[in-house]
Amino acid sequence: MLKNKWPLVALIGTGTLSIGLVVALLKTTDAFNPRGTDQAGSSQVVDSLETSSALNLALRKPAERAVDLSVMANGAAGIDRDRARYMLATDLINQQQADQALPLLENLERSYEVLAPYVLLRRGQAQAALGDQESAIATWARLIEKHPESTATAEALYLLGQSSAGQSSTNQSSADSLSSTHWNTLLTQFPAHPLSTAVAFYQLNAQQATPSATPSAISSGNRANAASPLSDTFSLLKLVAYHGHQHPDYTAVLARLTSEYSSELTAEDWAAIGFGYWETQNYAEAGDAYAQAPRTPLNLYRAARGKERGDKDKEAIVIYQMLDKAFPDEPETADGLLNLAGLQKGQSALATLDQVVARFSDSLPDQAAEAIADRASLLESLGSAESAKQAKASILSQYSGSEAAAKMRLKQAEENAKANNLSAAISWAQQLVDAAPRDERAAEAGFRLGKWHYQQNQSDQAREAFENVIVNHPESYYAWRSAVHLDWNVGDFDTVRTFRPEIALPSHRQPLPTGSDTLQELYLLGHNQTAWSQWQTEFENRQTPTVAEQFADGVLRLGIGDNLDGIFMVSSLGWRDRPAEIAEYQRLKQTPTYSQTIYPFPFPDLILGRAEDNNLNPLLVTALVRQESRFEPDIRSVVGAVGLMQVMPATGEWISQQIDQADYRLAEPQDNVKFGTWYLDYTHRQFGDNSLFAVASYNAGPGAVSGWVAEKDFANADEFVEIIPYPETKGYVESVFGGYWNYLRIYSPEIAAQIAAL
């Protein structure tokens, strides 16, 4: 996954750690960011959610909410006044108006108990911004004394250490000692806090720059660019390995730790290193690390899978067999045996697949059915056609609701449709929908069922089939196609460009499914970076999170602009296979937060504005940006495409000539979206404003699409999508228009109401 969001280190690396950094740092944390069942929060937080006027302002820009917050801040006592004062004070500090912020924070900790530590933290920051360092230090010291366990204390420790390291003193050794004390306490007491990782990297860099330096040995002239080593290198590297996953140099730390300190690492350390490599998609390295971790089902599975992905098949086979022997009935073993069979040949593979069926038929029917399907394919390759046929039949009879059965039925339906046997096609599709209504193939089968019913002049059955797709699979591409065939006003391939739906972005957030009262409040206030830091100190179950924890983690990632990982964390909850976890996932899937996280709306002003400039449906543009980059401005593809709309440098140069703009940077969102929307307008103009061809051209190029249009029979748009010769482009078209539909159903009140009425 992309890991390049680390403003703290970028700031720290610029020079002296000074109090002046506080304001700059705060601007990167709690300023408005449009990218922007365990514990549901206190009654003070949750019970007031629907009636809180302050929380309804949390997602608005500071300039848009200043007047309303000011009125509330001077209103009657209560939770809304407290929230308004805290929000307004934070905005004012960000705007370098700390003198106006201080009165709002005065004694606020007495009534605003849920954020009392953060009130003190902000007060100290305001005092520091005004140059009153003595008062700031006293305020932070009071915070540490009164709230030693609070995450706000971690920031106070950092700031006190920063102040000591940067202050001018005749007794510099004493200043170093203070800095060392505060930062060592931070590292020891709050190792998971992002600032601890920042300090660890700072110290590691300082040690490399001045490896023999001690606090008293660094001259005052060097203090602007170096820090005294406050902890040993091994401990610092371990801290980063456990907690620094988002740092851009994270994998370099893992490599250094394993190469220089291999003999000192514990089994638990190896598990953390394996997890770090796995999360950063370095699977071969992850396999090597997990092989030395404690023998749990997950660790052994990942050790084997990592070895397999690293082309170490013999080692993978040995570890898969170890997993099977040590944990014969665990879900990871079922998956491991399926992978093992793929590495084996002939009778050995058949025997392994038989073990999956024998052991997991009741507990994991999908895996058992997959094993039978793999067995059928293997039997066919061995010339046992009749045995393969019997195996396939057993899938339909014994595992009717499985993914394997759904795949078989859809294939049979399509083959019958091609043979113009629509009655048989309808029968196969209906069987799939009835047996596996939640399987993703049921969406496609239901849509085709509707079309085939129409072809049979069965309009009532067709309408029912289309409506069922929308109800049971509202997030699917086929739900949009079903809505089109129901004549809903949702835009079709040839009208979606000029369609202008009403767009209503959420006015406030819903509570997270887990987390402390403090976390809930910070999140609801829209204080994204502080909420994320708070979450880092609370999220102790990183390697095996609960459904609620993984959901919260994904949601909070979006707040700090880590859209790629945030979307993945929430969407991958669908991979859970334990019944209780599936039930929890399905419950969370019904919440507005789930949909808004999977289909977020970052950069709204930029995207909406450029869409309007180029006469484009803004939701279509948003869906295309999501597909291209997951809203990551700095992302680059393997072929060199840049930024939010993944503009190729050569294409960018050509566009710059067309629009007469020689000065541009594709990595800048403003330029990237300007160029990308211009090009999407261009592809529309090339194909008579047909958005199917325009979107396909954005991926494959206008030349390729022109050839397809000339060669293929374009009698039916749905059929044309199916015969696009580039699999990547076919998937791209379905993903973009599926995304468009999701943005429409989530953010258009009219369409949301129409779906709810079904």
Characterise the protein shown here.
The chain is mainly α and 758 residues long. It has five domains: 7-190, Serine Threonine Protein Phosphatase 5, Tetratricopeptide repeat; 262-398, Tetratricopeptide repeat domain (Serine Threonine Protein Phosphatase 5, Tetratricopeptide repeat, Alpha Horseshoe), CATH 1.25.40.10; 421-472, Serine Threonine Protein Phosphatase 5, Tetratricopeptide repeat, CATH 1.25.40; 517-598; 604-756, Lysozyme. It has 42 helices and no strands. Helix 26 (459-472) runs antiparallel to helix 27 (477-485). The two termini are 38 Å apart.
Summarize the structure.
With 758 residues, the chain is mainly alpha-helical.
> What fraction, in percent, of the residue positions are helical?
55-70%
Oligomerization state = single chain
Give me the CATH fold name of the largest domain: Serine Threonine Protein Phosphatase 5, Tetratricopeptide repeat
Major β-sheet profile? none
Low-pLDDT runs? 1-29, 31-44, 168-175, 212-230
Please, what is the CATH homologous superfamily of the largest domain? Tetratricopeptide repeat domain
Strand percentage lies at under 5%
CATH level-two architecture of the largest domain: Alpha Horseshoe
What structural class do you assign from the helix and strand content? mainly alpha
**Spatial separation of the terminal alpha carbons:** 38 Å
Number of helices: 42
Taken from the alpha-carbon principal axes, the silhouette is globular
Radius of gyration: 29 Å
In total, the number of domains comes to 5
Number of strands: 0
What is the CATH class designation of the largest domain?
Mainly Alpha
- Average of per-residue pLDDT values: 89
